Prior knowledge:
With 195 residues, the chain is of the alpha+beta class.
Amino acid sequence: MNEETNTTVAVDSTPLAPTPAVRESRNRDRGRRPGRRPSRRDARVKPEFEQKIVSLRRVTRVMAGGRRFNFSVCLVAGNKKGSVGVGQGKASDTPLAIEKAFRDAKKNMITVNTTKGMSIPHEVEAKFSASCVKIMPIRGKGILAGSSVRTVLELAGLREIGAKLFSRSKNNINNAYAAIKALKQLEHTKIKNRN
């Protein structure tokens, strides 16, 4: 008689831990040091233009079905080296409106005629809608300006400069456009001086 014997072999199902050499080679393949997370700072690049929001409003349109809400944004963009612009954008959500306003600001960018000390050569005055602004060079005082005019001057990179608003208008958008109009006069004087 032949007897068959059933034998079972116990197998350990736990996976083996990789050796230190294997672990090191894996980390080398990923291009980083062992035990470190990849940093996000390397991927982030500083933008060419800085931007500051001057006005952010929720505006309403009355339609047949009810009210429709949009966001209206006005912002100032500049590189702090003499280029500055004001733009407006409107969209159903805020980030899209900001993006539209930034594109508009870049499109309407002006280059300011500056002195060596990043001031302006002479005083200028401009009126936009109800806003009237006077910008003048002032030594040793920094930026003396208020409202959105200060934002325009800062992002243009101007120093040792002062501005005075002669209108009672509290409209930040019009004040910013008046400051741009005044600085635009310096741009024209630069072209005249070349000839």
